[in-house]
Amino acid sequence: MNSKKAAADKAISFIQNDMHVGLGTGSTAYWAIDGIGRRVREEGLKIKAIATSNRSEEQARGLGIPIFSFADIDMLDITIDGADEVDQNMNLIKGGGGALLREKIVASNSRQLVIIVDENKMVRHLGKFWLPVETAVFGWEKTLKKLAALDCTPHLRMNNDAPYVTDNGNYIVDCDFREIIQPEILHEQINSIVGVMENGLFIKMATKVVVGHENGDAEIFNGNR
Question: Catalytic residue at 103?
């Protein structure tokens, strides 16, 4: 069984009728949205959802999941999303799929943030996966240089021969920090740079992590806090 699907199937069991639900973005969140759509069709599950990307919104609408905005919903009961890395304290790197700003807005307005990953995403220290940083298009060259001054190797994300553009019209700089020992401090350092919209460090935001395994099992990891 697909380990990502195993994690997603367990996570969507936490959703109940009349909940406001955040829908993540990426290859693991895809399975969660697919499963929620199945529950809507087969069980008559009634929810209101907000998606973290145009891609996830399109998938959800195609499955009959009703999509709303924060103009309609004050607070989300639960958000189910993936992550690129999860450390032992449940800190995350997210944004590999290019939706980190919207993902963080949704996560920060959720009572529960349930992260679904396969076992390969669990690490002792963050940083092997390049840290995405969403930046304004104007002056991105200066922003990149200031990121480099934080002792990383920054790379402007490309889409073929042109810079990758997020759903919000921004660029993404992927930063190779090699190993991130103090994610809380780095988070503040990055976000203090003028031109940075948001970075992919999600510090102490996850309420639980569901880890899927290739044998079809899924377990809940609550961290070493």
Answer: yes
